[in-house]
Protein 1
Amino acid sequence: MSKISVAFFAAAVLYALIGMCLGIFMGTSGDHSLSPVHAHINLLGWATLALMGAFYGLAGRQTPTRLAWTNFGVSNLGNLISLPLLALLLQGNTSVVPIMAAGEILLVLGMVIFGVAVLTVGGKPTRV
């Protein structure tokens, strides 16, 4: 398996563990006010990064390596900015919105980069 695929899966596992811990915390405390953060960690961190890692693993040698690493960095940076700030926003701190918006733009950019990678791999002839 390629290093990029392993990196995506490793990051996905970290997000999954954070999401699980947050879920346990909310369940034991009875305070579910951070449920949107929990959902976004699981969707944008665990599920999305795992799917990207699976794609790059399946693409194998056709993976556009530089683009894939850019995808990894941009997507993770977007998560690391947006997810904690979403928690602060839900707790009433509206001053985080401009910075959070930058993180959200990075998340969209990460998905666009992934789309370009998919189209790049899809446009290459398959070797058997």
Protein 2
Amino acid sequence: MSQLDLSIEAGVSARHLSFVETGRSRPSPELILRLAEQLDLPLAARNTVLLAGGYAPAYSTHDLTDPELDPVRAAVRQILDAHSPYPALLVDKHWHLVEANPAVALFTAGADPRLLSPPVNVLRLSLHPDGMAPRILNLPQWRAHLLSRLRQQAVTSNDPILYDLHEELRGYPGDDAHETPISTAVSRIVVPLRYRHDGREMSFLSTTTLFGTPLDVTVAGLAVEAFFPADPATTASLQALAGPGAAHRP
């Protein structure tokens, strides 16, 4: 985005924006927030820019256990419970596991206990050779998908923790892993997770759910990662694993 494009989107003259950039004019907090919104900065970064400009942060940061976030936790719990018998989990901005439904146990089965000690990082668990990686049948494809997503998130947030995590995961083996041919129609549309559990081959589609209007830094960093069966065989396997009381899903 050019400076002219940014000035038009933010509703400020290009001359004034140039003065702000060079330090000849001091921006108001309202202008800082408008610019941050147009640049799609995360809420934590907007607070940082406000502080750099000499203003108080505009967005709160709560702990997940704070009473103010009770409605948020209740909404997430409802999503996770309703998704059973399919796996779903809640992660924070650094991909640490916050909550999960019981079906996620099929992903953690067989993982080194060290990877399951809190705080559990779900990307590390996914790609570590002592985690899920040996059971992911399309590991190179899935690995490339996760690394690309993490890299984009790190660049957008300029978060050193995410950059360090990306470098760590890049060092794990997986690019030269054996990959069975991909022949299903869904594999030509999205990147599936093809996973072996207890002798069964399963195929999943993943979705990400974010809070649509966050005004809190913690809430803005939360994401629900939900997995759906990509074929009837996976649906049947998940319902069998969940037992006779599992909800039937089409």
